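Structure first, sequence second, as always.
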């Protein structure tokens, strides 16, 4: 069966995360988004793990569903059939090669017993109660060693692999190869996560990643952001089938990833946010990687780091790789089309109308006929915005040094022309 999976989020127990990131809300929001399989996030946190065991019940092998007594109705007025997979993210800060390393790792567990055993061992190393994404003074290779020792079906995936401060290839504290990071245990690493500031073609430029699968997840801290990146599968529902589809890069079972436009990610370009400096890799090189205003080092972003490690030119494509589609969340598309804030009542109204008409956000963005979208919302500019999005006709001011990029679908004259044409007919 075909379905969408977002396998990396955070719960209310992680820092800077909405208190609404609870199972009851994740269950119904996933359905409205069009996501069937959600990562639980944060299973290493004791309080969240207790909730997972209390509120979830077994579904297909290695997957869980919310117990009926906790269900809440979706926008459509129905009850969701969301499945949950046990997932977590850990933050590793340690010394290697005379340098402090800061690396985030994703952990997927096939069952409760395995997660419990891993939590016990990680609890000997760090304070799991302190954060949903615990900080561990543990080498990345040691994590893999411990995990596969508990259960070889545990999956470790390097998180948001290019992010400057906390990733395997990050410019500020990372490594140049997976082997350098994971040593002899690199053989257990079969996938990486793109993160918001890179997309699959950027990763295809490294021949050393040719045998590594590429996944994408939202890393969401709020309900609105779940699914901003995700994975589309066509396989039987189970932990093993999902992991095998990823590992084997089977184009019949792992159909594509859903991506941010990477320029919109908050570390795509280099820069210094305090001074308002945003540079391409070429501009950074011309300034010796220093801020021309204050003289301090720039935060070297994802595109620059890819350029440093790539052995293939920009624009390289590989037809044997899992493809991707770049999207913008529906509420942001509506807000851009109407030239209003994303949290306004008018956006909420149009969003709910479209979900009710086309069953989900992803179905609206990917499948619904543009003519029907226009008929449902009565706003030609919304339908036109979705049509342009599908064609990749967007304009983006790249993000840098922790600031998201600014994306535009229309300029003001285009929007007025569409509105005038609608009033005329």
């Amino acid at each position: 069966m075909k379905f969408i999976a977002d396998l990396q989020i955070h719960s209310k127990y992680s820092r800077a995360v909405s208190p609404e990131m609870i199972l009851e809300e994740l269950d119904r929001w996933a359905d409205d988004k069009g996501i069937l399989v959600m990562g639980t996030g944060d299973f290493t946190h004791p309080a969240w793990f207790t909730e997972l065991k209390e509120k979830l019940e077994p579904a297909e092998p290695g997957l869980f569903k919310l117990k009926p007594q906790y269900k809440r109705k979706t926008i459509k007025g129905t009850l969701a059939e969301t499945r949950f997979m046990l997932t977590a993210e850990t933050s590793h800060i340690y010394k290697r090669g005379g340098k402090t390393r800061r690396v985030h790792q994703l952990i997927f567990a096939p069952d409760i017993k395995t997660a419990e055993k891993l939590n016990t061992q990680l609890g000997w190393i760090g304070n799991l109660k302190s954060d949903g994404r615990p900080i561990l003074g543990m080498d990345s290779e040691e994590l893999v060693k411990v995990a596969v020792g508990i259960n070889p079906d545990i999956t470790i995936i390097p998180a948001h692999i290019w992010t400057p401060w906390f990733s395997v290839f990050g410019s500020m504290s990372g490594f140049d190869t997976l082997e350098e990071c994971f040593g002899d245990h690199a053989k257990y690493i079969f996938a990486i996560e793109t993160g918001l500031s890179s997309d699959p073609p950027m990763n295809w430029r490294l021949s050393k990643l040719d045998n590594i699968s590429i996944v994408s997840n939202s890393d969401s801290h709020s309900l609105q952001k779940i699914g901003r990146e995700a994975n589309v599968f066509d396989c039987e529902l189970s932990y093993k089938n999902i992991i095998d589809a990823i590992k084997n890069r089977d184009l019949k079972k792992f159909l594509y990833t859903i991506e941010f436009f990477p320029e919109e990610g908050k570390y795509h370009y280099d820069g210094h946010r305090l001074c308002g400096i945003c540079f391409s890799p070429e501009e950074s090189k011309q300034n010796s990687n220093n801020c021309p205003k204050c003289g301090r080092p720039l935060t070297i972003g994802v595109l620059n780091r890819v350029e440093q490690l790539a052995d293939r030119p920009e624009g390289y494509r590989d037809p044997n790789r899992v493809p991707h589609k770049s999207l913008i969340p529906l509420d942001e598309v509506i807000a851009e089309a109407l030239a209003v804030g994303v949290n306004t009542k008018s956006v909420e109204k149009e969003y709910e109308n479209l979900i009710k008409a086309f069953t989900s956000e992803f179905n609206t963005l990917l499948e619904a006929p543009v003519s029907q979208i226009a008929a449902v919302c009565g706003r030609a500019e919304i339908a036109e915005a979705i049509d342009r999005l599908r064609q990749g006709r967007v304009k983006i001011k790249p993000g840098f040094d922790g600031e998201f990029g600014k994306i535009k679908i229309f300029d003001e004259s285009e929007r007025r022309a569409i509105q005038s044409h609608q009033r005329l007919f």
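Margin note: The CA atoms of residues 146 and 278 lie 41 Å apart.
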